[in-house]
Specification:
Layout lengths: L1 H19 L3 E3 L8 E5 L1 H13 L3 E5 L2 E5 L2 E2 L4 E5 L3 E5 L31 E4 L2 E6 L3 E3 L20 E6 L2 E6 L2 E3 L4 E14 L2 E5 L1 E14 L2 E4 L4 E12 L2 E3 L6
Parallel strand pairs: 1-3, 2-4, 3-6, 4-7, 5-8, 6-9, 7-10, 8-11, 9-12, 10-13, 11-14, 12-14, 13-15, 14-16, 15-17, 16-18, 17-19
C-alpha cells in the first residue's frame, strides 16, 4: 500500500511539473531553416498559430539566421531567441513582402505612428506576450535593407516591433539593430517591462504613445533620434539606462 501511494504521488508530481513548464515550439520543427537565405516567416507564424491553438507557449529560435517578413504575435506567446539566433528583415520582392498597412483615416498623423501591420513583428489587442533571449533582431539583410524609412500603403515595413492596445508585455535581453524608423513602437500599452535591451543603428528606440504601468530598466539605447519617446503616460519608470541619441540616423 505504501509503495502504491509513493508511485501515485510521483505520477501526480510529474504531471504537475509538466503542466508548470510552458510548451516549447521549436521553429525548425515547423520548417524554418535559419540559413539566412530561405524566408522563414511562414514557418514561424505556423509555430505561433500552433502554440496559440494549444493555449500558448514559447516559440523557440535556436542559433541561426531567420530571414523573415511579418511575424504575427498572438495571446500567451513568448518568442525566445537563443544565443546566435537572429530574426533578420527580408527585402520585399514583387511576389512577397510584409503585411500591408491597415487603413487609417487621419491625414495629419505620421504614417509610422498610426500603422502596425507593416512591421517585422506586430500584434494588436493582445495580452501576455514577450520577446526574450540573448539573440538579435536585425533590420537588414546581406544585400540591402529589409526595413525601410518609407511611408505609404505598400508592402514594406519600417518598424522592428509594433504593438497596439496590448497588455502584460515583456521585452528582455534582446538586441535590435538597424530598425529603420522604430525599433519598438506602441500605442495604448499597459503593464509592460523593457529590461536589458540593446538598440543600435536605427532612428527611434522605444516609442510609446499612450501607456501605463511601464518599466524601462538597464537598457542601452544608441539611436539617431529619440532613444525613448512618446506621451500620455501614467506610472512610467525609467532607470539604469544608457542613452545616446547622437548616432547617425538610418
Amino acid at each position: 500500500m505504501k509503495k502504491t501511494v509513493i508511485i501515485l504521488l510521483a505520477v501526480i508530481l510529474s504531471t504537475a511539473l509538466r503542466a508548470a513548464v510552458p510548451s516549447l515550439y521549436n521553429v525548425r520543427k515547423f520548417g524554418a531553416r535559419g540559413d539566412g537565405r530561405s524566408i522563414d516567416s511562414e514557418a514561424v507564424n505556423k509555430a505561433i498559430e500552433t502554440a496559440s491553438a494549444n493555449g500558448g507557449g514559447t516559440v523557440y529560435f535556436p542559433a541561426g539566421t531567420y530571414l523573415s517578413y511579418s511575424i504575427r504575435m498572438k495571446d500567451n506567446i513568448r518568442l525566445y531567441l537563443d544565443r546566435g539566433a537572429v530574426i533578420k528583415a527580408a527585402v520585399p520582392t514583387e511576389k512577397q513582402g510584409y503585411d500591408v498597412a491597415e487603413p487609417n483615416g487621419s491625414r495629419y498623423q505620421d504614417f509610422g505612428h498610426s500603422h502596425w501591420k507593416n512591421s517585422l513583428i506586430w500584434g494588436i489587442g493582445l495580452h501576455d506576450i514577450s520577446i526574450e533571449g540573448p539573440g538579435r533582431i536585425d533590420g537588414t539583410d546581406a544585400l540591402s535593407r529589409g526595413l525601410e524609412n518609407a511611408d505609404g500603403p505598400i508592402a514594406k515595413a519600417n518598424k522592428a516591433i509594433a504593438l497596439k492596445e496590448c497588455r502584460n508585455v515583456t521585452i528582455e535581453d534582446i538586441t535590435i539593430t538597424c530598425a529603420s524608423n522604430y525599433a519598438f513602437m506602441a500605442y495604448a500599452l499597459e503593464d509592460a517591462v523593457f529590461r536589458n535591451i540593446h538598440i543600435t543603428e536605427g532612428w527611434d528606440g522605444i516609442h510609446i504613445r499612450g501607456g501605463r504601468n511601464i518599466l524601462i530598466d538597464a537598457c542601452k539605447l544608441e539611436t539617431g533620434d529619440d532613444s525613448i519617446a512618446g506621451g500620455y503616460w501614467e506610472n512610467v519608470e525609467i532607470r539604469n539606462c544608457s542613452i545616446n541619441s547622437s548616432c547617425n540616423g538610418i
